[in-house]
């Protein structure tokens, strides 16, 4: 089905959790949920960039909803989804 | 917030992808999507068991929907969710 061996999608997803835990919202973030859609294969040697954008703030629950996207070196979206986190 | 240092939730989620790719549905599985709900913390030293149960088959699209659960050594569910995969 694929041209070459591909990387397990959860490895790509791991990059999202790194962004959430270190950049946005950053340290002290508690991961509550994540939706993942694997849209394109990641091949060995690809360079993947994970980005997160806040789409909703729920201050009364200390919750943040983020749109999360991973793109490869050609700008193709390989993973999209939504994260729900708690930020103290 | 937590008693001790906790493991990144995506490490627990990785166990689900191992089950899907090696057991059910097994080799040749293509990961299309995953919903994850992180329900309880995973502490260093915990033993986590990942299980998958087929909840829907869509033969005309070669799709399989599975309920995915990770429990700790005390039987507590630490992660629940749903996987969508394609099986050739």
From TrEMBL, chains A, B:
GO terms for biological process: fatty acid biosynthetic process. Gene3D superfamilies: Hotdog Thioesterase. This is MaoC domain protein dehydratase. GO terms for molecular function: (3R)-hydroxyacyl-[acyl-carrier-protein] dehydratase activity. Coiled coil: none annotated. Residues 2-58 form the MaoC-like domain. The gene is maoC. InterPro entries: HotDog_dom_sf, MaoC-like_dom, UPF0336/Enoyl-CoA_hydratase. Pfam families: MaoC_dehydratas (PF01575). It comes from Brachyspira pilosicoli (strain ATCC BAA-1826 / 95/1000).
């Amino acid at each position: 089905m694929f041209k070459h061996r591909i990387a397990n999608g959860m490895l790509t997803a791991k990059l999202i959790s790194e962004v959430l835990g270190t950049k946005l919202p950053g340290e002290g973030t508690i991961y509550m949920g994540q939706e993942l859609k694997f849209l394109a294969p990641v091949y060995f040697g690809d360079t993947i960039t994970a980005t997160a954008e806040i789409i909703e703030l729920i201050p009364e629950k200390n919750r943040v909803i983020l749109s999360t996207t991973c793109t490869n070196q050609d700008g193709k979206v390989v993973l999209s989804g939504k994260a729900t986190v708690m930020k103290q």
